[in-house]
Every structure is written in structure tokens, then in C-alpha cells.
Design brief:
The chain is an alpha/beta fold and about 260 residues long. It has a single domain, classed as 3-Layer(aba) Sandwich (Rossmann fold), CATH 3.40.50. It is built from eight helices and nine strands. The chain starts with 8 loop residues before the first strand and ends in an 11-residue tail after the last strand.
């Protein structure tokens, strides 16, 4: 433990697996207290037990971020345990990939409800508390889809572009109140979702190799590598980084063509 986050009480969404779970573990290792939220309560409870952290520094609540009432209950529970929250990590999200003209109204709504509205629900509830305390940090887990387009992934990049816009807007709006709002944009990450994607092909090993070959370094990120970037952005080591987006994709989005 390096205690880089010993003064942080962090509310983390989508924390039952993947990047969210890795961020929670990294924050705990750096001395933070964390309150984990996920709509999959059974999975979340198991993960909290597996972590074996000091019960005084970890809490959890089953809630869907698209449900304002549920998130209000989660925030109330977090405040009851920690007294106040001074950091928020909006990690929960969902892939919604379609051809544009084949996108149903229901899928459009689902994409924006989870990837944008959910982040705003949490931010709106916790911002007043941060302002009253004289400062706080919000980190939105965005994506390289926030500034690049992959065909056939509509409307996901539309929502992620909007999330980046919200990051910049809130960061500027509340900078004078001591609140920093930033985004972290991962590229390909070896999560359960990526593994399931590779296994949707007849030859999963070939599909994975093709994904790795897209990257200048011939590899993709682990959730733990993304988590350490999140630790930096939440920490007090970057007090003048605000309304910004840190890209963590191994250089993928900077090249016009695969090497």
C-alpha cells in the first residue's frame, strides 16, 4: 500500500467485474475507502467477500444506475458508512453495437440510459456534497469510442462522445468550487466481454491474435493497467488536470493503419 488515496472515499459504479473491479482493488491498495455499486448484487457481494478488505473501508449496494431512486438509496448507504463521498468513478457501461439504420428505439434508449444518463444520475447526486466540502473528483470511464468511430458500433460512440462532452462541461462549470472532472479512455482491454467476443468466432485464438495485431505493441491492456491510470487521475498528484481525457490504448487510436 502506497497510501496515494488515503484521503479518498470513492463511490464506484459497475464494480462487480472487469475494469470497475480492478479499479476498486487498486484504490483499496492505495489506502482509499470504496463503496461499490452494481446491478448484479450477487456477483458484487461475492467479489467483496473475495477481496477480503477491512470492512471499515469497503461497502457495497445493488443498484441500477439508470434508476434514480435506486442510486439515491446507494448514495445514502455510502454516506451512512463513510460520512461523506469525495470521489466518484462512473465506470458502469454497456456495449450497444448496431448498423445505424438497424438500431431500434429501445436499443438507442438503452445505450444512452446506461452510458450517459447513469453517469449523470450519480454525478448530480454527489456534486453538491463535493461543492459543500470544498472539492472532490469525478472520473468518467469513457472509451476511445469517445473520439474515434468504428463502423457498425452505432450508437455506442455517440453516447461516449456525449460522455466526454459532459466531462468537459462539468469540469469547467465547477472548477472554481474545487471539483475536478476528468475522463479515462481505454481501448481494448482483456475483460470478460473481450474474451466472450473472441469466443463468438469459430477460432477464438485467431480472433484474439487479430485484435492484438492491431496494436503497435502487439498487446492490449489488462484491467489492472487501466486501474492504475484511474488511481492517478483520482489522486492529488494531478491537481491541475481538469476537464481532460487520458487515453490508455497503447497508441492504437494514433495510427491510421495497423503496422
Amino acid at each position: 500500500m502506497a497510501d496515494r488515496l488515503s484521503n479518498k472515499r470513492i463511490f464506484i459504479t459497475g464494480a462487480a467485474q472487469g475494469i470497475g473491479l480492478a479499479i476498486a482493488k487498486a484504490c483499496l491498495n492505495e489506502g482509499a475507502s470504496v463503496f461499490l455499486v452494481d446491478k448484479d448484487g450477487d456477483r458484487l457481494k461475492k467479489r467483496v467477500i473475495d477481496i477480503e478488505a477491512d470492512p471499515a473501508r469497503i461497502g457495497w449496494f445493488e443498484a441500477d444506475i439508470t434508476d434514480k431512486t435506486a442510486i439515491q438509496h446507494a448514495v445514502t448507504a455510502a454516506r451512512k458508512q463513510f460520512g461523506s463521498i469525495n470521489a466518484l468513478i462512473n465506470n458502469a457501461g454497456v456495449n450497444v453495437f448496431h448498423e445505424p439504420l438497424e438500431t431500434s428505439d429501445e436499443e438507442w434508449q438503452r445505450c444512452f440510459d446506461v452510458n450517459l444518463k447513469g453517469a449523470w444520475n450519480c454525478s448530480k447526486l454527489l456534486l453538491p456534497e463535493m461543492i459543500e466540502q470544498g472539492g472532490g473528483v469525478i472520473l468518467n470511464i469513457a472509451s476511445t469510442h469517445s473520439f474515434t468511430i468504428i463502423p457498425h458500433t452505432f450508437p455506442y460512440p455517440v453516447a461516449k462522445h456525449a460522455l466526454l462532452g459532459m466531462t468537459k462541461s462539468l469540469g469547467l462549470e465547477y472548477a472554481s468550487k474545487g471539483v475536478r472532472v476528468n475522463a479515462l479512455a481505454p481501448g481494448y482491454v482483456e475483460t470478460r466481454i473481450a474474451i466472450e467476443y473472441w469466443h463468438s468466432f469459430p477460432d477464438p485464438d485467431k480472433a484474439k491474435a487479430e485484435t492484438l495485431a492491431l496494436h503497435p505493441g502487439g498487446k492490449i491492456a489488462t484491467p489492472e493497467e487501466i486501474a492504475m491510470a484511474a488511481v492517478f487521475l483520482i489522486s492529488d498528484e494531478c491537481p491541475f488536470i481538469n476537464a481532460a481525457c487520458l487515453t490508455a490504448d497503447g497508441g492504437l487510436s494514433m495510427q491510421q493503419h495497423p503496422l
